[in-house]
Specification:
The protein is mainly alpha-helical. The protein is built from 37 helices and 2 strands. A hairpin with a 2-residue loop joins strand 1 and strand 2. The longest helix has 21 residues. The chain starts with 47 loop residues before the first strand and ends with a helix.
């Protein structure tokens, strides 16, 4: 399985998935995918500034930086007059030029040409106030202009970042943080060695230095290329420490940076090594919803990996309780992330049972009925994983959630929700041998049929529905609803689908229904020649001795014929044996000696695409071309030989019949 939302192919049962945030906080789990990117805006008398992110509204903090305004210009001019004897001519000229340029700043590019040259003169001056003015200017300019810049524009800012004066560092780091909203600038800052001075600022006891330096690293960490450099730079330990800061602004920035480092398995392991896990769990206890959001999302990503889940299980016994509390009481975005974290944790048996034991089901039902799609998606995905464990079937059904799940098959307009709920239902049916008529009584098959006959239904959703039917047909209490519900008429046309998974699942489900031929011979006989040529047309086309026919699909068709003949139904035996080509072609297949070079190697039905298939009685017994309990782990020769063996079995059976 895999998350970003890792998609589970329709033919895998039981179905479970993990979810990883894909994007950084520029806030990608995609969506669920979360990453941060912030434009650092200088504040005039304010400590907080709202900023817009992908689908989110977040708050970024930094200390106020005096703007180069008329008041600031006068202060600079006054300071220059005081230090007039100390200023070189070029510094005096640069100050005068910049005073003029800032009067018309909206039309001036300060990252090149004479404006950059004038700013650089102030940067490399030995006069502290000129350096401070340059740092402040870069900070203010970068609020409005975050275009890609050159090395020549970044060099003076990086120089200021190494100033011994904290207020100069502060302006420089604000400028870098703003420029780091642009992807080209993110990469260039790191390539030019910007991490080292930023880390030194993080280690400073000065809160302002911590706020801006951590905020800048947060932005830099949204670039995948930078993440390894950040991890190698030694930044993770101070980021982890600063996530425990008493200053909320520092905490938020540090937590955002940690989150941005959770988007690959390698970086997640590095975070674990830096001790980030207990810190992130501690942040769940914060009253600040932003910190809760960053922490839950980071933990959700860590829970994608088996090693991460095992660490959480062994060291964080309160984690599930905290997440369930968020599901019940927090903001919508924290609710979504908390459920997604539970979903990833529920990839493991121990968490599947613990979440249910701690009351997780009571929290999911209201969310499944929400009108907000992200909540419904998250809740249905979590339930899909919880439904895997056999011991959870009873509490899930007793919770009253079944009617809600069934209705979501058609009532939800969201494909993800439809796939999650049908997979959950599939898992619940497959988990034990108890009577499943409550599923049918809840209208399960009416809803599935409505999806299959709806031309607007996507192939992904239809594939999930058919994969579920292939499980339901194996249940003694459910298969009559399928055979009598007109599903054969819907499946036969899908045997010609161009979607290989959909085609395969349709063929195997028909084969599973053929396994009930002794009890449902009339229904199978009714579809022998309709719709669209019926069952006989499907079997004849798949059994044609044609090098282009896939041996796996041909094996399924052969197995279907064998089951029909074993039914002892005179009508079915007559229809099969009396067909002009079916038995003749099976004779030819049975006489094939070896695998033609390259035939199966071009198969669309690879071992991976058939993994975990729920199949017919014979398949489950290991007699047919698939296996119920795991991947179809056979070589090309083994698959081809199996096909020939089934064909020979059909020939032998026909010869033994008294026709």
């Amino acid at each position: 399985m895999a998350a970003h939302c890792y998609y589970v192919p329709a033919n895998i049962t039981p179905a479970y998935e993990q979810h990883e945030q894909e994007q950084p906080i520029e806030f990608d789990m995609s969506a669920n995918d979360v990453s941060f990117e912030r434009k650092i805006v200088s504040k005039r008398g304010r400590d907080a500034e709202d900023y817009e992110t992908t689908g989110q509204r977040c708050t970024y903090y930094r200390n106020s930086v005096s703007a180069i305004s008329a008041k600031r210009t006068k202060a600079v001019e006054s300071q220059v007059r005081e230090e007039e004897p100390l200023l070189a001519d070029k510094e005096r000229q640069a100050v005068n030029m910049l005073v003029d340029l800032f009067e018309r700043r909206a039309t001036v590019s300060f990252y090149e040409g004479e404006p950059l040259k004038a700013l650089s003169t102030l940067v490399y001056s030995h006069v502290y106030h000129l350096q401070l003015s340059a740092a402040t200017a870069f900070s203010e300019i970068s609020e409005m202009d975050t275009r890609p810049v050159t090395r020549e524009a970044l060099e003076p800012i990086l120089y200021l970042l190494q100033s011994p004066h904290i207020d100069v560092q502060h302006g420089a780091s604000a400028a870098l943080g703003n420029l780091a909203v642009n992807m080209d600038n993110k990469l260039l800052i790191v390539r030019m060695g910007g991490l080292e001075p930023l880390i030194r600022q993080m280690l400073s006891p000065n809160i302002d230095a911590q706020i801006n330096s951590v905020g800048c690293i947060t932005n830099l960490a949204t670039a995948e290329e930078n993440k390894m450099q950040i991890a190698k730079s030694g930044a993770l330990l101070p980021l982890t420490r600063l996530a425990r800061s008493r200053d909320l602004r520092v905490q938020r920035n540090a937590a955002g940076a940690l989150l941005n480092m959770t988007h690959s398995a390698e970086h997640r392991q590095q975070l674990i090594g830096a001790g980030a896990v207990p810190v992130l769990v501690e942040l769940l206890g914060s009253d600040d919803s932003e910190l809760q959001y960053y922490a839950t999302t980071a933990l959700s990503n860590i829970a994608v990996d088996e090693s991460g889940r095992q660490l959480l299980w062994k060291t964080q016994p309160v984690l599930v309780d905290a997440l369930i509390m968020f599901v019940n009481t927090s903001t919508i975005k924290v609710q979504c992330q908390a459920i997604l974290t539970l979903r990833n944790l529920a990839s493991d048996d121990q968490y599947q049972t613990q979440i249910v034991e701690k009351g997780g089901l009571d929290s999911l039902l209201p969310l499944l009925q929400s009108e907000y799609d992200p909540l419904v998606i998250s809740a249905s995905a979590c339930l899909r994983n919880l439904s895997i464990h056999p011991s959870n079937e009873k509490p899930i059904l007793e919770s009253g959630i079944l009617p809600c799940l069934v209705s979501l098959i058609t009532q939800s307009g969201n494909e993800e929700v439809q796939c999650h709920v049908i997979s959950a239902l599939r898992n619940l049916v497959a988990n034990n041998e108890a009577d499943k008529t409550p599923f049918a009584n809840a209208g399960l098959f009416d809803h599935i049929r409505a999806v299959l006959v709806n031309p607007a239904s996507s192939e992904v959703v239809v594939g999930e529905m058919i994969a579920a039917l292939n499980v339901f047909v194996l249940d003694e209490s459910l298969w009559p609803y399928i055979i009598d519900g007109g599903f054969l008429e819907l499946l036969i046309p899908l045997t010609r689908s161009q979607n290989v998974e959909l085609q395969y699942n349709a063929c195997v489900t028909i084969s599973s229904l053929a396994g009930k031929a002794s009890e449902a011979s009339d229904r199978l006989a009714q579809v022998w020649d309709r719709p669209e040529g019926g069952l006989q047309s499907y079997l004849a086309s798949f059994l044609t001795v044609d090098e282009g026919m896939d041996p796996v699909l041909r094996s399924v068709a052969l197995w279907t014929v064998l089951l029909l003949l074993e039914s002892d139904s005179p009508d079915l035996v007559r229809l099969v044996t009396g067909h002009p080509s079916i038995i003749k072609n099976i004779d030819k297949i049975a006489s094939i000696d070896s695998l033609p070079e390259g035939e199966l190697r071009n198969s669309a039905y690879t071992t991976d695409s058939l993994a975990g298939l729920r199949s017919s009685r014979g398949f489950m017994d290991g007699e047919g071309p698939g296996a119920d309990d795991g991947p179809l782990d056979e070589s090309d020769d083994e698959i081809y030989n199996r096909m020939i063996t089934i064909a020979q079995d059909v020939v032998s059976l026909v010869q033994s019949l008294d026709i």
